[in-house]
Amino acid sequence: MAAYILRRLLLIIPTLIGILTINFLIIQAAPGGPVEQTIAQLEGLSNSSVPGSSGGGDLTANQNSNDSSYRGGRGLDPRLVAEIEALYGFDKPAHERYFQMLGNYLTFDFGKSFYSDKSVIDLIIEKLPVSISLGLWTTLLTYLISVPLGIRKAVKDGSSFDVWSSTAIIIGYAIPNFLFAILLIVLFAGGSYFDWFPLRGLTSSNFDELSLLEKIGDYFWHITLPVVASVISSFATLTMLTKNSFLDEINKQYVLTARAKGLTEKSVLYGHVFRNAMLLIIAGMPAALIGIFFTGSMLIEVIFSLDGLGLLGYEAVINRDYPVIFGTLYIFTLIGLLMKLISDLMYVAVDPRIDFESREQ
Q1: How far apart are CA 335 and CA 341, in angstroms?
Q2: How far apart are CA 350 and CA 225, in angstroms?
Q3: Residue 315: CB partners within 8 Å, gap ≥ 6?
Q4: What is the largest CA-CA distance in the chain?
Q5: Domain residue spans of the chain
Q6: Which residues contact 256 (CB under 8 A, 6 or more apart)?
Q7: Are 28 and 94 in contact (CB under 8 A)?
Q8: What's the whole-model pTM score?
Q9: Average pLDDT over every residue of 120-130
């Protein structure tokens, strides 16, 4: 097992390099980078400062210089364009910037954000508690609802309970979480009906002045709608997976043997079936955590103005904040790969018969 873990850890390195390489190449081809955005802003200021101006205005120290490779930068002094390139690190060739990025990332040096004047790692640490808070409650509620509901549906397979609960699950799954979030805002956050919950943020403005119990109540008051919106579209897949996994185990021979020995249905279900049926659920837990913590929470964070990693990534893409984009991508990918390894180890812990190392030989 130690050799298997070592191989998996070593495979993380080329995987990270491959993902970063692909995204680096895509970013180089994407228009509207930080240099072009700054040039466009300067051109806009120049045009607005000189009525009727169609060129670079007062910022044009050399109107005859038309060799700029940036759209909109032909009316600017080449020295100014060069300074902008150096400011954002684009004064070096692409291959040199690429290898410098790889070297820095090996030591978790992600550089500074182009716009907030903070290091990327500080931004991630600053935003992480919000995403963890939202992800933990969403994951906890999802499993607390899905696993018992899936077991109940498996036991009552084909009954009226199974039919109407499946209908409710399908409807909940069909509604995107961001659309459900908007519906919750309209209904309960001062929209057209009730004003029971706050519209934005994770805490109130006077949070520091509240007592401990008031802080706890204020926190749950703010987190309720975002968590509910996330849970609605998250538990459907897990519920059906739990049901199908239990149905598959219930129909196996060892269950019939246990029943023939006179064991109660509860003993058969939780003493024999549960451990085997939960393998698939355990295997999917890391992927569910990553999806809920990072990708799944982005739109929820944007809608409810929660200052977490999802909102940070969204703003970074909009602003072409490349250090933040690559830094968060690197962290998310690394966490995802490690969680996948943990998933395999959990497989072995639950069922010692599984041996990944022997399968690779």
Answers
A1: 10
A2: 35
A3: 321
A4: 95
A5: 6-106, 120-359
A6: none
A7: yes
A8: 0.71
A9: 86
136: nearest Cα among 341, 304, 302, 292: 292
Residue 302 has pLDDT above 50, yes or no: yes
Residues 308-328, mean pLDDT to the nearest whole number: 82
Q: What distance in Å separates the CA atoms of residue 241 and residue 144, rounded to the nearest whole number?
A: 14
Do 355 and 348 touch, CB atoms closer than 8 A? yes
| The two three-digit tokens of residue 95, written as one number | 């291959």
Q: Name the residue with tokens 């970063």.
A: 20
- In the predicted model, is pLDDT for residue 87 greater than 70? no
Dihedral of the CA atoms 314, 317, 322, 326 (nearest 10)?
60
Contact 325, 27 (CB under 8 A): yes
For the segment(s) 120-359, the CATH number from 1.10.3720.10, 1.10.260.30, 3.40.50.970, 1.20.120.10 is 1.10.3720.10
d(C-alpha 327, C-alpha 67), whole Å: 33
Residue 328 makes CB contacts below 8 A (sequence gap 6+) with 120, 124, 309, 312, 313, 316
Contact indicator for 39, 19 with CB cutoff of 8 Å: no
What is the C-alpha to C-alpha distance for residues 242 and 249, in angstroms, rounded to an integer?
11
| 57-77 pLDDT tens trace | 443 334 344 445 554 445 566
**Torsion 260-266-269-274 (CA) sign:** negative
The amino acid that residue 177 corresponds to is: N
Cα-based torsion angle of the residue sequence 163, 168, 170, 174 in order, rounded to the nearest 10 degrees = 160
The CB density around residue 2, as the number of other CB atoms within 10 Å, is 7
What secondary structure letter does DSSP report for 252? S
Give yes or no for residue 251 having a pLDDT over 60: yes
Whether the CA torsion 238, 153, 171, 146 is positive or negative: it is negative
